[in-house]
Amino acid sequence: MATDLHAESLKGKLALITGCSGGIGSATALALAWRGCSIAVHYNSSKEKADALVAELTKISGVKAVAFQADMGDYDKVRTLHSEVVQQMGHPDILFNNSGTTNSVIGPSGNMQDVSVEEFENTWKVNTGSSYLLTQLCLPTMVENKFGRIVFCSSVAAGTGGVIGPHYASSKSAMHGLIHWLAMRHAKDGVTCNAVAPALIIETTMFANPAESLKSRIPVGRFGQPAEIASVVEMLVTNAYMTNKIIVADGGWTPSAF
């Protein structure tokens, strides 16, 4: 008999979403909460947005939500974030590594010399290192429980070079090797690992003032919406057969997955 895996799969689960006060994070939090998932709302500086999101999430029946502040460029604070989430809400069943930074934007025609190695390292630390550490911290309990969903927010820049710079593009492509290793290693443990790779999503901090000329890069002729990325994360979280995948959501910019 066919079973609707979506009907009950997230009830009673806890999702830790980093960068949750931003457009993609907020949209994903709401999508998962409507499926009965409680949300650990991480933010760095946007306390008002995080508190407003918590208030909205807790209006949903059975959903718990708490805001947690942490600078993702500081590994000790990342460790504290995980500890506080566990103490106040329990061990995460779902981890959406969504936080990130662009730092300098030099564009596809910029000069690599304009991005120092220190800025390169900071970009990697925020975008990739903190996600590695949080995954490392959350994974043992997921394996023990034989259930875990790990999703990374990559970028189309990981496969194309993108429009920000080499520091950002390389920090995102580095996620892909990590995802492939984790997915293969822990598939037998009930833990899936995937990524969504968006391009040019409006209503986000990273793409707050988009140049209209960039629309010419997008075959569908418009920028993406945070909810359209959230729907991909929702699919990856609710589908136990999807693992080891990078799902590109870019309006048709790239012709195939990478």
Automatic annotation (TrEMBL):
Keywords in alphabetical order: NADP, Oxidoreductase
Entries under CDD domains matching the protein: SDR_c
GO biological process: monocarboxylic acid metabolic process
Cross-referenced PROSITE patterns: ADH_SHORT
Protein name as it appears in the record: 3-oxoacyl-[acyl-carrier-protein] reductase
UniProt cross-references to SUPFAM superfamilies, sorted A to Z: NAD(P)-binding Rossmann-fold domains
Family, per entry: Belongs to the short-chain dehydrogenases/reductases (SDR) family.
